[in-house]
Write a structure and sequence with these properties.
Length: 323
């Protein structure tokens, strides 16, 4: 068996890592292997046993204590972004595993907000359904809703939520905002109206979710919130799947209590082929495309290469653990 360090690039579904950055120097020093299929924890425990380092793309793979304990050779983890919420940093620290981040720079910062707008407009004008009907030989099966003059509710007004405001204003929309930490002054400064959570769901024609997933935001959109929405209203989620109670959402959609939903993130990713969400006609589904633009991928992988090289040199960069 080779004594060279072994590096695993995980969840590179489209084999983009080698195209987005120059790995040649690392490949001269290490064995670098791409895994283009998502691995379950059990599969990962077997497939990664002999690897010294793993490179993660955002939070596509969870790395809990139970997996770390089954990877005896693991010494280094490269993450993209500035943190990884499903990586057990305590367990990594106990093992002395170094974790380096590859935070986003100046490119692609609007990417997720741009996708949110794409999904919102697709919902309003039934673009996927009409485009598919055209390919099948159909012609005008539905009518749309103009978004000018409508109300956009932003559940979360952080960096990504704030990006939504000027575009909404350009469309002539009214913008409402709420989150657990948001103040009226902060909302006003961002160009939005601060309202209560209930009023946001009652008044909005489109609700767009832009929250960080945590214990207190898990299922922050449930049956009660959905029941407050207008029958003509829709919801868009490009943040994290578990922010919305999926079962409650499916009930609302099946009963046409709301007009539609557009989802880019899910409780389980990749979304299983037999997931019932796939069969609902008033849902638009995209496979977590929010950050997957060339600008960001080039930054993420270039910094990952730097981080792995620095670790091999004994002078790791951008270390976030252990502390």
């Amino acid at each position: 068996m080779s004594t060279r360090p072994r590096i695993a690039i995980l969840d590179d579904y489209q084999n983009l890592a080698f195209r987005m950055a120059d790995w040649s120097a690392l490949r001269e020093r290490c064995e670098v292997q791409i895994f283009d299929q998502h691995l379950s924890e059990e599969d990962a425990a077997i497939a990664l046993q002999d690897f010294d380092a793993i490179c993660l793309l955002r939070e596509r793979m969870a790395v809990p204590r139970s997996l770390i304990e089954r990877l005896p050779r693991l010494k280094f983890i490269a993450i993209t972004g500035h943190l990884h919420r499903t990586l057990d940093m305590v367990a990594a620290g106990e093992r002395g595993i170094i974790v380096s981040a590859a935070p986003r720079g100046g490119q692609g910062g609007w990417a997720t907000a741009e996708l949110s707008w794409g999904l919102l407009i697709a919902l309003a004008r039934h673009i996927p359904q009409e485009a598919n009907a055209m390919r099948a030989g159909g012609w005008q099966n539905s009518y749309g809703t103009a978004i000018g003059g409508r109300t956009l509710g932003l559940l979360g007004l952080g960096r990504l939520g704030t990006y939504m405001v000027p575009i909404a204003k350009a469309f002539g929309m009214r913008v409402l905002a709420w989150s657990q930490n948001l103040t009226e002054a902060a909302a006003t400064a961002a160009g939005a109206e601060y309202v209560s959570k209930d009023e946001l769901f009652r008044q909005s024609d489109f609700v767009s979710v832009h929250l960080v997933l945590s214990e207190r935001t898990h299922h922050i959109v449930g049956a009660r919130e959905l029941s407050l929405m207008k029958p003509s209203a829709s919801i868009i989620n490009t943040s994290r799947g578990p922010l919305i109670d999926t079962e409650a959402l499916m009930v609302a959609l099946r009963g046409q209590h709301i007009a539609g939903a557009a989802l880019d993130t899910f409780d389980v990713e990749p979304l299983p082929d037999d997931d019932p969400l796939r069969s609902l006609p008033n849902v638009i589904l995209t496979p977590h495309l929010g950050y997957t633009v060339e600008d960001l991928l080039r930054e993420f992988y270039a910094r990952t290469v730097e981080n792995v090289g620095a670790w091999l040199d004994g002078a790791p960069l951008r270390v976030i653990g252990p502390h």
